[in-house]
């Protein structure tokens, strides 16, 4: 029976991987054949008139190859150009039928395939991945009712309230048009000119100056849908909702010095994602929602439709509804990741849009930009194609994949029995929520959207002293890179309305004054906003184990097994690659040497040494360990190596654990789980 006919009579279940399979090909061990089916004898020499004569235009094989190469790239995204993707699945915890009739949120036994694209906002496709920036966290759920996209970022709010300002925001943050630099950075005049000139950006500025703007990796990065959507149940009752994506490993950042030094590895984040999926360390996230009933819409001291405001979890609790697991890398980065197209307008039956003005603008913009970038038929590309059948009267357009039979491509008709036919609501047709809309036509910001400082102050109140220090440092660096004093002054004027403490510290560092303006009196805080209140686990963390010839093999082997059982990933580091032999004759494979490894790549270190320690080993191990110590990471060491820690002045400091008893293995696991020991002194100025 034809699959499409099967759908008409049965509930349609389809795995995305099965759907992709016909589009996947492997060219290994195959004959070389042109796109038109000609077997190729020579792919290295063009057709010429004589061995030194002119190349002939009749060489259709060379023309095909070069012409295709000339067109291999599609325009990169205006924003979110730098991205990487992975496949996964969503498993529901419990039915959400009470608040939505969305099919994929009904049955906990059902898995929904999905694709995730992580990205950066500012830079081009070749930019460094560890710069301070907003990250995209977009998810495409391939549901039986069509695609549903959460086009998320790693902050719960956005810069602006109305989409009409989005081109201005992006123009300001992109390289300045006269000199076309800096690339992928916010630390320049035009960006901070825009930010200071538009007070609605004040709250978002606090978030991007926080540690959340330099995530440690995509596996420990939170996602937020930002916008207010609607869930609609079978009874036609609607609730306002926001989407959250919480990493199981917790939300963890880099520190400024790490982010700067990691600039030498432009692919740091994508390599981490790829490597961990290949190792079986599948990134896991919990999908959560905040829910507000319609009769609660005006019960808060902020407008729930304002995209520059978050809903504090203490006032609107999170409800975790399912788990997202990423378990497969892409086969081809262009065909899948680069051609993936996300759109906040991709919702399914049981959902609808709110009047969030930024969302309303994005509903037009995202479809428009995808059609310009990859064509009118972008939904027919394998990565974007829904798993359910698609029938309508749309035809033609660039790169159309579907071959439609028959004469009819319009509605209504008698030649095809008025098919494709409309689907009534009781048969699964999409139903728009009948909300009441009224008011004068006008260009105006709602009065309830005009408080730009209260939530910025709540964010500041929620930060620990360490986080506040980092925010001050970030503002000081960013504004310090602005050449025009009025730009610096204007931004400090905004900060003074949030916190005089913050403004005074930044003003002192960037050479401007603190204005005499009214400071926000907000006393609330939201502990959930602080990264110090996230999950702290040792799972998947990498520990550098420094071994020299003649190390105590049995003791080290027992520790490595204990740490692997706890989910940690020990990496053997030594003078050179190959093998390193213990005092008992055991051999360990060396994963990294001091040249190929980097202290930035590890979350902790264990100094073992051995009888074969030489000056080179001593120097390199010392350099690695001091670097990690200055980044507040845990350090473990055998008692024989205590002299080295003493020489460095770090013996006995918080997070420095000595291997002196049988409890060391667990103590070090606990230290690794904590990840950073902010209370200890550092020899670096870290922002």
Automatic annotation (TrEMBL):
Residue ranges constituting the Catalase core domain according to the UniProt record: 33-419
Key words, A-Z: Heme, Hydrogen peroxide, Iron, Metal-binding, Oxidoreductase, Peroxidase
One Gene Ontology molecular-function label: catalase activity
Signal peptide: none
EC number: 1.11.1.6
Obligatory cofactor(s): heme
Highest taxon of the lineage: Bacteria
CDD domains for the chain: GATase1_catalase
Substrates-to-products reaction catalysed: 2 H2O2 = O2 + 2 H2O
Transmembrane regions listed in the UniProt entry: none
Family indicated by similarity: Belongs to the catalase family. HPII subfamily.
Role this protein plays: Decomposes hydrogen peroxide into water and oxygen; serves to protect cells from the toxic effects of hydrogen peroxide.
Record's protein name: Catalase
């Amino acid at each position: 029976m034809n699959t499409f006919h099967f759908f008409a009579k049965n509930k349609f279940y389809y795995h995305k991987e099965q759907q992709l399979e016909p589009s996947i090909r492997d060219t290994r061990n195959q004959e070389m054949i042109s796109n038109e089916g000609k077997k190729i004898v020579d792919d290295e020499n063009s057709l010429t008139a004589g061995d030194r004569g002119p190349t002939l235009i009749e060489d259709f094989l060379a023309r095909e190859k070069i012409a295709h190469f000339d067109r291999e790239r599609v325009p990169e995204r205006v924003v979110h150009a730098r991205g990487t993707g992975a496949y996964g699945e969503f498993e529901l915890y419990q039915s959400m039928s009470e608040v939505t009739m969305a099919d994929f949120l009904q049955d906990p036994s059902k898995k929904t395939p999905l694709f995730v694209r992580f990205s950066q906002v500012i830079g081009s496709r070749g930019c460094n991945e560890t710069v301070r920036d907003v990250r995209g966290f977009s998810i495409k759920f391939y549901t039986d009712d069509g695609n549903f996209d959460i086009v998320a970022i790693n902050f719960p709010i956005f810069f602006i309230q109305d989409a009409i300002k989005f081109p201005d925001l992006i123009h300001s943050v992109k390289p300045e048009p006269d000199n076309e630099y800096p690339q992928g950075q916010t630390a320049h005049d035009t960006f901070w000119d825009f930010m200071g000139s538009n007070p609605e950006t004040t709250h978002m500025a606090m978030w991007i100056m926080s540690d959340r703007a330099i995530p440690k990796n995509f596996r420990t990065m939170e996602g937020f849908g930002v916008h207010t959507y609607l869930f609609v149940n079978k009874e036609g009752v609607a609730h306002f909702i926001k989407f959250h994506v919480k990493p199981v490993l917790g939300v963890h950042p880099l520190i400024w010095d790490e982010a700067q030094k990691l600039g030498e590895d432009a692919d740091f984040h994508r390599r981490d994602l790829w490597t961990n999926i290949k190792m079986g360390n599948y990134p896991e996230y919990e999908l959560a929602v905040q829910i507000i009933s319609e009769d609660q819409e005006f019960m808060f001291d902020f407008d729930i439709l304002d995209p520059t405001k978050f809903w504090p979890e203490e006032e609107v609790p999170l409800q975790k509804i399912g788990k997202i697991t990423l378990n497969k890398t892409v086969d081809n980065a262009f065909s899948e990741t680069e051609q993936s197209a996300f759109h906040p307008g991709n919702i399914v039956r049981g959902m609808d849009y709110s009047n969030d003005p930024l969302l309303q603008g994005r509903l037009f913009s995202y479809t428009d930009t995808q059609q310009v970038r990859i064509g009118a038929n972008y939904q027919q590309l394998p990565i974007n194609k829904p798993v359910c059948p698609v029938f309508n009267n749309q035809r033609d357009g660039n790169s159309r994949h579907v071959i439609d039979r028959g004469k009819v491509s319009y509605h209504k008709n008698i030649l095809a029995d008025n098919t494709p036919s409309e689907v009534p609501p009781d048969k699964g047709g999409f139903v728009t929520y009948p909300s009441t809309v009224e008011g004068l036509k006008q260009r105006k910001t709602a009065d309830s959207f005009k408080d730009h400082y209260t939530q910025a102050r709540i964010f500041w109140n929620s930060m620990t002293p360490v986080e506040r220090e980092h925010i001050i440092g970030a503002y000081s660096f960013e504004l310090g890179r602005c050449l025009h004093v009025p730009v610096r002054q204007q931004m400090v004027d905004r900060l003074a309305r949030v916190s005089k403490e913050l403004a005074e510290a930044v003003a002192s560092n960037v050479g401007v004054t603190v204005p005499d303006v009214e400071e926000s009196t907000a006393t609330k805080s939201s502990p959930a906003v602080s990264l110090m209140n996230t999950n702290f686990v040792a799972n998947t963390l990498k520990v550098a184990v420094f071994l020299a010839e003649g190390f105590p093999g049995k003791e080290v082997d027992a520790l490595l097994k204990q740490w692997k059982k706890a989910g940690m990933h020990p990496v053997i580091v030594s003078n050179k690659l190959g093998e390193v032999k213990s005092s008992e004759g055991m051999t360990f494979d060396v994963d990294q040497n001091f040249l190929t490894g980097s202290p930035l790549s590890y979350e902790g270190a264990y100094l073992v040494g051995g009888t074969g320690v030489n000056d080179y080993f001593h120097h390199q191990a010392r350099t690695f360990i001091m670097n990690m110590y200055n980044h507040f990471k845990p350090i473990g060491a055998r008692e024989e190596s205590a002299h080295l820690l003493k020489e460095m002045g770090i013996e006995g400091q918080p997070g420095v654990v000595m291997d002196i008893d049988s409890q060391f293995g667990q103590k070090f696991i606990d230290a690794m789980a904590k990840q950073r020991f902010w209370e200890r002194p550092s020899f670096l100025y870290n922002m």
